[in-house]
């Protein structure tokens, strides 16, 4: 029995910015890490220093990229890529406003959150495009006989991104859409905290879809193409069409969600602990 390859994904949210601290909506604004955020990035880098990563991916926005660089310095030989698809959702004119100012603006204009910036569909499409790409690149397709008989080694990649992006990819797509198992469901009540660590394991699964069976009977026998009949005792062995299609899908586990154990020594509250932080990524 072959062992299916696994893709291990460690996801880290960027460190704190002044906008996080003051409940300012950021979106595509290129805000920088503040002093606490730089300390957080250094601590998560030390936490992950002994892990073996095959590739590091980061959003191109400074707050994520600088966090990724603080981790990457412990992995000097690991490929490092920056990808705009890992950005936070663009919220248009709401960017730079406090959550309270944004709520007032939305109320005064008689609009909805969804009316500002990019559509949720476009945001989702960007993230899933990236996800599909890394699956194709880092997780062997077990449909082929060669990859089944000679599976590649398990791969481990790091993603450094934003709270809204993590929520969209992990909570909405992996858990809700794909049905990934969650080790601790209580932990996903809140969105990802600054420099929190989320660990995921992804596998390809293959299911068999059995097609229809077609049996043409006449009297006590089965009719053949030349009109002759065959005893019914042989019916189970002829003219039975059984099509089997092997459809690859994904399954996986969320083994850890939004862990910030590495921040204990700071002794400070981290963004993401309250309901208002759901809006500020």
TrEMBL record:
GO biological process entries: negative regulation of glycolytic process; regulation of pentose-phosphate shunt
Renumbered residue ranges of the record's region Disordered: 212-237
Keyword Metal-binding in record: no
Any one cellular-component term (Gene Ontology): cytosol
Residues annotated to bind substrate: 13-20, 63
Keyword Protease belongs to the record: no
InterPro entries per UniProt: His_Pase_superF_clade-1, His_PPase_superfam, PG/BPGM_mutase_AS, Phosphoglycerate_Mutase
Annotated active site: 14, 88
Pfam families associated with the record: His_Phos_1
Sorted UniProt keywords: Hydrolase
Comp. bias regions, Low complexity: 212-227
Example of a GO MF term: fructose-2,6-bisphosphate 2-phosphatase activity
SUPFAM superfamilies: Phosphoglycerate mutase-like
Name this protein carries in UniProt: 10179_t:CDS:1
Source organism of the structure: Ambispora leptoticha
């Amino acid at each position: 029995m072959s062992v299916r390859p696994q893709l291990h994904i460690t996801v880290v949210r960027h460190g704190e910015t002044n906008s996080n601290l003051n409940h300012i909506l950021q979106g595509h604004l290129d805000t920088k890490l503040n002093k606490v955020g730089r300390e957080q990035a250094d601590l998560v880098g030390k936490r992950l220093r002994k892990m073996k990563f095959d590739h590091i991916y980061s959003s191109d926005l400074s707050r994520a990229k600088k966090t990724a660089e603080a981790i990457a310095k412990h992995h000097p030989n690991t490929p490092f890529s920056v990808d705009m698809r890992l950005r936070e959702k663009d919220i248009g004119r709401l960017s730079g406003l406090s959550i309270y100012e944004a709520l007032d603006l939305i109320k005064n204009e008689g609009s909805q959150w969804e009316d500002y910036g990019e559509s949720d569909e476009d945001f989702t499409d960007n993230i899933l495009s990236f996800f599909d790409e890394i699956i194709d690149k880092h997780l062997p397709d077990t449909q082929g006989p060669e990859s089944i008989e000679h599976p590649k080694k398990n791969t481990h990649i790091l993603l450094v991104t934003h709270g809204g992006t993590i929520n969209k990819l992990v909570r909405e797509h992996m858990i809700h859409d794909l049905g990934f198992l969650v080790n601790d469901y209580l932990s996903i009540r809140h969105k990802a905290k600054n420099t929190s660590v989320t660990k995921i394991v992804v596998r390809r699964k293959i299911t068999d879809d059995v097609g229809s069976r077609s049996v043409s009977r006449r009297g006590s026998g089965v009719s053949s193409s030349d009109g002759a009949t065959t005893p019914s005792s042989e019916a189970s062995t002829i003219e039975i069409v059984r099509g089997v299609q092997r459809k690859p899908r994904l399954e996986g586990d969320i083994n850890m969600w939004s862990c910030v154990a590495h921040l204990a020594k700071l002794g400070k509250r981290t963004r993401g602990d309250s309901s208002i932080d759901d809006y500020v990524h």
